[in-house]
Amino acid sequence: MVPESRTFAADPASVAEARRFVRQTLAGWQAEHFEDRAVHVLSELATNSVIHARSSFVVELSLDPAGLRLCVSDDSGRRPVRKSRSAQATTGRGLALVEALSAAWGVDRNGDGKTVWVLLTAQPDEGREPTGRSTPLALFAPPEDVDADPDEGIRACLTRPAA
């Protein structure tokens, strides 16, 4: 599939527009089986761009045999930080959710900004090393280095298939 991308304004309403873009693109690719996870992950990443980066953001989707790659780029060089929160906290679990729903994810510098990329496979933990924890406990696990796999990242998001 040819990657699809769209730029969205630094406005909270843009998060809903980005979700519609993801749903429409997946429907066009007949890849609706990714929709729930892709929309949840996109919501977290787009919201982070609007709230923390305070910049417009670009959403790029690409589909290949490895799965669905979703990238969100913004103008902030600040890396997202996974926070430890109490069970009563109502915010701060977004990156833990991204990790739980994806096979892999990471952050790459993109000029002065960054790109957060996520790989969604047929099963969320396909290809992931076993942690010995169930997903609910993994949501509260200590953060790990998100750049662990140097072969992943923005290069895959920006690489176009040969014509």
From TrEMBL:
Transferase as UniProt keyword: yes
Protein name in UniProt: Histidine kinase/HSP90-like ATPase domain-containing protein
Highest classification ranks of the organism: Bacteria, Bacillati, Actinomycetota, Acidimicrobiia, Acidimicrobiales
Pfam families found in the cross-reference section: HATPase_c_2
Region (Disordered): 123-152
Keywords attached to this entry: Kinase, Serine/threonine-protein kinase, Transferase
Domain Histidine kinase/HSP90-like ATPase: 8-118
Superkingdom of the organism of origin: Bacteria
Cross-referenced PANTHER family: ANTI-SIGMA-F FACTOR RSBW, ANTI-SIGMA-F FACTOR RSBW-RELATED
